[in-house]
Amino acid sequence: MIVFALTRIPGVLPENFSAVYGLLFCCGVYMTGRMAWWLPLATMAVTDIGLNLYYQLALDVDAFKPYLLFNYAAYVVLIWLGRRFTARASWLALLGGGIMGAILFYLITNTAAWFFNPFGNPEYTKDLTGWIIALTRGTAGYPATVEFFRNTLLSGGLFTGLFAGAMKLFAAPEEQESEEEEPAEEPAESPAPEPTDANG
């Protein structure tokens, strides 16, 4: 979690290229009980507060917007999706789950940006065309949102693959021991025939 928090420092990773998608999904897979929910969400909240202070003090930008709460709704969906898998799932299945989570995150957050339109983007009309523009082209003067989607998808797959691969690697000996076949039970000996009376 500490290393993940450090990756959120501005400039460490490309924009929208984040470990968050894979991390939250894998927290749902590998963490047990309430920790799967409160630890990653608390880490996100603390780092978000730090980022908001940085943008407000250093760049004089009001970074906090109410629609950003939809990010946390997407975080909850990522953890929930991870809870649908088990640690014994194949690496490919977990990779697919992480990529699916990244897609859901992109759809939820960009739909919220289109619906609330906090910056008053004229392209984000409240119809199907405006929604498709929000998901593909975005607003003028900024990189196309489909580029953000590419980074979201790539980082979701990359970090899910790394996290799940590391867990598989370190859990392999233990899993092999637990999956060893139990020794077969020896067949029960058939009872010896009762002696017959020689006198008949």
Can you describe what's shown?
The protein has 200 residues and is mainly α. The chain has one domain. The protein contains 7 helices and no strands. Helix 2 crosses helix 4. The protein is globular. About 6% of the residues have low confidence.
| Count of spatially separate domains | 1
Mean pLDDT: 82
Strand count: 0
The coarse overall form would be: globular
Identify low-pLDDT runs.
176-186
Sketch the major β-sheet. none
Task: Give me some keywords for this one.
single chain; 200 residues; mainly alpha; 0% strand; globular
Per-chain topology:
Elements: H1 2-7, H2 20-30, H3 35-58, H4 69-83, H5 91-116, H6 128-136, H7 145-179
Helix pairs in contact: 2-3, 2-4, 2-5, 2-7, 4-5, 5-6, 5-7
Task: Summarize it.
This protein is mainly alpha-helical and about 200 residues long. It contains seven helices and no strands.
